[in-house]
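User: Design a sequence. Structure:
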């Protein structure tokens, strides 16, 4: 077709069903994201949190002026060795490794872990940056998972 693809009936139905709950889901993502960002901001193994909804976001005035809310996608800088950062990711049990942001489950990605300083400059990503997408799970469950992963990441082996 010259005008592009046509959405099938099943896909159309699923789209409409998802749109009905979108505002409620986005509010929950935002709430969960702020809870997790606040936890990360105070954790000794975190050198910085990159999330517009966090209180330490460097452009907080711009965020408040132009945005009505935030999502739950964020990054933080793991303060430790690349090996410890990778142990942290592997120790998570509620977060799955992946980059398909927007679903209901929490995800983690550690693209810059182990990159050379030159690679980080080229990719414009901080070393030891860990990307989190906070899903719709109970925030306390996610906080407990993060805490145990930080503990395991600093353990030898």
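Assistant: Done.
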């Amino acid at each position: 077709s010259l005008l592009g693809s046509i959405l099938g009936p099943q896909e159309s139905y699923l789209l409409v069903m998802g749109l009905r709950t979108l505002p409620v889901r986005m509010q929950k993502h935002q709430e969960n994201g702020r809870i997790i960002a606040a936890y990360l901001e105070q954790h000794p193994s975190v050198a910085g949190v990159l999330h517009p909804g966090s209180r330490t976001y460097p452009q907080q005035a711009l965020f408040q002026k132009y945005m009505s809310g935030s999502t739950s996608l964020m990054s933080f800088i793991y303060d430790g060795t690349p090996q410890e950062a990778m142990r942290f990711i592997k120790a998570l049990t509620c977060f799955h490794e992946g980059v398909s942001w927007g679903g209901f489950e929490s995800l983690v990605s550690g693209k810059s872990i182990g990159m050379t300083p030159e690679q980080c400059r080229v990719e414009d990503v901080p070393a030891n940056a860990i990307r989190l997408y906070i899903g719709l799970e109970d925030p306390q469950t996610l906080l407990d998972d993060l805490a145990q992963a930080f503990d395991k990441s600093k353990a030898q082996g």
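Strands lie at 46-50, 73-78, 96-97, 107-109, 129-133. The mean pLDDT is 90.
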